[in-house]
Amino acid sequence: MLLSLLEINGSINMIGYALATLGPALGVAWIFASVINGTARQPEARGAMMGTAWIGFAVVEALAIIGIALAFVLS
C-alpha cells in the first residue's frame, strides 16, 4: 500500500515532535532531581525550592506545548 506525500509528511512531523519531547522530559527530571538533592542537603529550604521548581516546571512544559502546536500547524 502506497502512502501519499501528505501522509508521509505528517508522520515525519510527529516523529520530529516525539524526538523534541525529550528536551522537556529531561528538563522536568533535572528540575525535580535538583529539588530532591537540595532537600536532602538542606531540608528547611524545601518550601522555597518547591516554589521555584513549579515555576521552572511550567516554563519547561510550555516549551512542549508550543512544540506540539507547531507539529500540528506545520503538518
Automatic annotation (TrEMBL):
Gene3D superfamilies the record matches: F1F0 ATP synthase subunit C
Keyword Transmembrane attributed: yes
Cellular component, GO, one term: plasma membrane
Domain V-ATPase proteolipid subunit C-like: 16-74
Record has Transport as a keyword: yes
Subcellular locations according to the entry: Cell membrane; Membrane
Keywords: ATP synthesis, Cell membrane, CF(0), Hydrogen ion transport, Ion transport, Lipid-binding, Membrane, Transmembrane, Transmembrane helix, Transport
Predominant location category: membrane
CDD domains for the chain: ATP-synt_Fo_c
Site (described: Reversibly protonated during proton transport): 61
Organism domain of life: Bacteria
Gene Ontology MF annotations: lipid binding; proton-transporting ATP synthase activity, rotational mechanism
PROSITE patterns (UniProt xref): ATPASE_C
Residue stretches spanning the membrane: 12-33, 53-74
InterPro entries hit by this protein: ATP_synth_F0_csu, ATP_synth_F0_csu_DDCD_BS, ATP_synth_F0_csu_sf, ATPase_proteolipid_c-like_dom, F/V-ATP_Csub_sf
Membrane topology: Multi-pass membrane protein
Biological role: Key component of the F(0) channel; it plays a direct role in translocation across the membrane. A homomeric c-ring of between 10-14 subunits forms the central stalk rotor element with the F(1) delta and epsilon subunits. F(1)F(0) ATP synthase produces ATP from ADP in the presence of a proton or sodium gradient. F-type ATPases consist of two structural domains, F(1) containing the extramembraneous catalytic core and F(0) containing the membrane proton channel, linked together by a central stalk and a peripheral stalk. During catalysis, ATP synthesis in the catalytic domain of F(1) is coupled via a rotary mechanism of the central stalk subunits to proton translocation.
Family of the protein in this entry: Belongs to the ATPase C chain family.
This protein's name: ATP synthase subunit c
UniProt organism field: Propioniciclava sinopodophylli
